[in-house]
Design brief:
heterodimer; A: 190 residues; alpha/beta; Rossmann fold; eight-stranded mixed sheet; 22% strand; B: 673 residues; mainly beta; Maltoporin, Chain A; five-stranded mixed sheet; 6 helices; 7% helix; globular
Amino acid sequence: MSRAPQEDRPAIRSRWRAVALWLAVLLPLLPCRLPGQQDERAVRAAFVFNLTKYVSWPGEHRRLVIGVVGDGEMGAVLKQVLDGKLSEGRRIAVVQHAVDAELNECDLLYVNNVSPAQLRSILARAGKRAVLTVGDSDRFVRAGGMVGLIRSGDQIEIEVNLQELRSRQLNMSSRLLNLATVVSPAEGGR
Amino acid sequence: MRPISIRAACLLFGLMTVLFAGRLGAQEAVVPDLTGMSLEDLSAVHLSTASRHLEDPRKAPTPVTVITREEIARYGWRTLGDILRSVTGFYTAYDRTYTYAGVRGFLQSGDYNARILLLIDGHRTNDNIYDSALIGTEFPLDVDLIDRVEVARGPGSSLFGTNAELAVVNVFTRQPDRRTGAETTAGGEAFAGRTSEVRATLRAGRFAGLFSGSLFRSNGAHRLYFPEYDAPESNNGIATNLDGDRYDHAFGMVRSGQFRLEGLLGRRSKIVPNASYATIFGDSANRSIDTVGFLDASFSHDFSSRAQLDVRGYYDAYRFFGSYPYAEVNGAARAVQINDAASDVLGLEAVWGEKLGQHRVVGGFAAEHSLRIHQRNYYVGSAPYLNDNRTLDHDAFFGEAELNPSAHFSFNAGGRVDWYNLFGTNLSPRLAAMYFPTKATSLKYIFSHAFRAPDPYDEFYVDLVDSTASTRSIEPESINTHTVLLEHAFNPRLHMAAAGFANALNDVIKEQVDAEGNTHFANQAGDTGRGAEVEVVAEDASGWRARSSYTFASTRQKPGHARVMNSPAHLAKFNGVASLARAGYVGAELLFNGPQSNYLGQRIGSSFLANATLTSRPIGNRFEISASCYNVFDRRWSTPTGPEVTAPATVQDGRTWRFRLTYHYSPERKSSR
């Protein structure tokens, strides 16, 4: 590689200096927002929205409350994507980090990133009310949850515990059931 | 005012970047709203198993073309080679034994696509003796089992290691269907070609399995004329019933959650009609049999939504059997030479991917140990004159960082260190700087260095007696590539990508012929290539879709600046699908290759190929029918051959056709609903 002649070097230096200065000054001024990414969290949020459309709750509801429990990111994601949205004429309200009092208000409870012991406790606290429990861990439906949004390879699969759903007078449309894997009580116990 | 020094400016730039990165890291990422998607569409969304490598397609540090399963059906593509030749910058050649792919002006005779890395579900499928990427009927997977093909043009050694010099082709298989069910396909095509395929999905609890088996039998062209052999003693150059092709494929995948066990076995046998390697013309003993198999167990674990670990363990097996009839050998009028080769390899790979704020890092290692690398050459009834047994080891570490200091800039730096017991270490870096002036536009500069390690065939194969064997030592060849890439979406349905590229291939491993006429491999001065390509993709809500591209490539030898062989300067392609209302679809493909020269410098004329396919919509939810016509205008066209074939070019098929009927079976759901 040939070197630049000595007399050209100051010019090159000043050009590099200008580039470095330009970058140093301009970079922090640029907008911070990243372009949207179609990621797994967004897909999960969209699935939850579809659950609100294809599951029917007993009685009349003008408002649909989604409670989120657990340490994962889904609370913030559901709040951002679904809060205030209309589903079948009902306004969705998302409650992050739902505590006991708020659990009683929930129509849908999303369980995100909890230990098995916490999961048992949460499901017990949901009681026998008509609350649709949704989780994303592999063992969620087996542990007594109603709908699992399970990552299988590079896709999300829906698992449904129909017995649990029906015991709370919740009905799921055939369109949703057609896409779901129905976990029977026998399978649920494996 | 005292001018700021370069060092101070760089320090300031670095400091501001770090501070800015930290500020971004504390922010919540904006998650897109996909609630407008239907349940069915959501169920079909791929979260991409390669997400750690290509989290956001806009930030891929290489041009990527994705071919979907639907396109494969609509265009009637029969082999992976058919799929690849529709991709921008790709072209293929077929010598009636194997299909070869060229990329951006590089297609070297004498090897078997060793400069392209071929993956199936992320599993390397270049074999471990010849490094061959098998893409014709020798590809061990049914095309109907392909869900999509991701083709990354340009080097990829910084993540994937050897062979990823010109492109990385990652074939993703279909996943088990959502219900237990089966489908069977029967096909008939020209040259008495017939296909039977059965695929079944079985589900039991959380386990889902996809299993497939298929047979393909083709008599091949009944008569092929080779003017080079036009003499009475060689049947006037006519090869009759010497183009037979057959394969058997088996594939299985079982998955449960994030665990997957996958295996395949493919065996393909081809009669060689053109007397390659100076064998007896018209002798049906001239044939090649490739058998490829692997078993791959992988597990992916999400430690959180931002950190993921993938672990893969595998066993690879490859067998080659080639028989070559020769005249006048050791006093015998005819003797059949057998080349056989076998490799058995165990490997382990782990990849950690994590998002740090808006940034992303990936790191991993790979280790491979060959239980057996065996090459043997002998004449039937004689002792082997090559009987080479090896065990080879290969380890690698790799990492990549994607730095996203703002919405407008992204930087990607990565590298991989490979160690081979055969020749030592090799470093493959890649650097990319990307600028996004708007959400619809990106401008990227990418520098990458990739390599191809000498394989056991390069190193240890000999024809008869190799006088150079004791002094031979082949070094890895390498490629340096600079790419400038502009991508723009005019609207959600109209995309454009344009790229300029400059390649420098160094220390190319090429086949040499010694004074006795025997061949071996050695490093040679390389080639350089420059060019540009543009691709436009458009689709319409009514079902119309089109992809069109043009590539210019000027590839020259380093000493002498002569044009290299098998390198058309111009490639133009068009693929379009139109919806025929309720009847189905019509897919049309137009492929133009400019003139090129073969290894002797002889000119091979340009070719224009038109293919068309009609596919029905599902009939009664059970049946699907497709009909294809290839080379619709019956144009005569040829592709260059390598020195192993006497003919300077291989004449390709004229107008041919194919019909397929698929039947879907789905048992009634046993439901307690």
